[in-house]
Amino acid sequence: MPQIIGDPRTPRRSPWDASRAHHLLATAALIMSVALILSTLVATLSIPTAAFQPRGPANGRALAYLAHQYLGNAFGTSRGLSQGRPL
User: Fold this and answer.
1) Judgement on whether residues 6 and 30 belong to the same structural domain of the protein
2) What is the C-alpha to C-alpha distance for residues 42 and 86, in angstroms, rounded to an integer?
3) pLDDT value, residue 11
């Protein structure tokens, strides 16, 4: 990471060494990639195809649809409002 400069007085093997920022960013990218793939898989397998059609209840808001279905109306509505499209 050229933008991050560690303290030259800090030992190289310190867990707080800024020179290892690329490992942190790579790990975060890997975790988010896996989360994105798994959430897509869950939404695709959990929601009926008809709900994804235009003007269907899950069109563009699959997570709010699943929140309504599995976590109740209060949580589902708050999730929908956070997306700007309540059910």
Assistant:
1) yes
2) 21
3) 61
Same domain (yes/no): 54, 84: yes
Q: Are 24 and 45 in contact (CB under 8 A)?
A: no
pTM: 0.57
Do the Cβ atoms of 87 and 65 come closer than 8 Å? yes
Nearest CA to 33 out of 25, 21, 22 is that of 25
Q: Are residues 60 and 75 in the same domain?
A: yes
Domain that holds residue 32: 1-46
Number of domains in the chain: 2
Instruction: Give tens-digit pLDDT for 41-80.
Output: 988 899 998 998 998 888 878 878 888 888 888 877 777 7
Q: The tokens 């897509």 sit on which residue? A: 40
